Amino acid sequence: MAEAGAERVIVGRISGLYGVQGWVRVYSHTDPRDNILRYSPWQVRVGGEWRALAVLGGRRHGKGIVARLADCQDRDQARRLLGAEVAIGRAQLPELESGEYYWTDLLGLRVVNKDGIELGRVDHLLETGGNDVLVLAGERERLIPFLPEDVVLGVDLETGVIRVDWDPDF
Length: 170
Hints:
By secondary structure, the chain is mostly beta strands. The protein folds into two domains: 8-92, RimM (Elongation Factor Tu (Ef-tu), domain 3, Beta Barrel); 103-164, SH3 type barrels (Roll), CATH 2.30.30.240. The chain is built from one helix and 13 strands; from the N terminus they run E-E-E-E-E-E-H-E-E-E-E-E-E-E. A hairpin with a 2-residue loop joins strand 5 (55-61) and strand 6 (64-69).
């Protein structure tokens, strides 16, 4: 949900159009989903280029979010944003307490089991409803449930390692 080590944090994607006055549907990665509306401007990647767009309005709509962005006055202008990633500047995120981290901080970290066997690096995370899942890239893709104290034994951002209780054959 982010570009590892970047100044930008991916917080969503423009997934559709809403109405005829330039509003867009947004798939949000924030929790709760409407937290994405607290940040402005959004950085929107259009045609490989990042553009800062002020959020002029927004609200929950059904299970999703709709938003009105600057420079987006009608459906045709909104259509150019379809599929665009939505990011915010890392500095826009609230400060965390010691020992806390954002999901974006986990991307690229090495995952090592309690026996010292490296299982791969965090490629991305999945939200499954029951629990979140670390998706590792390495010799093969691995899916490891993000269950603190049960499976995930520790996250050390300074050394870039997540320790897990996980059998390497899974």
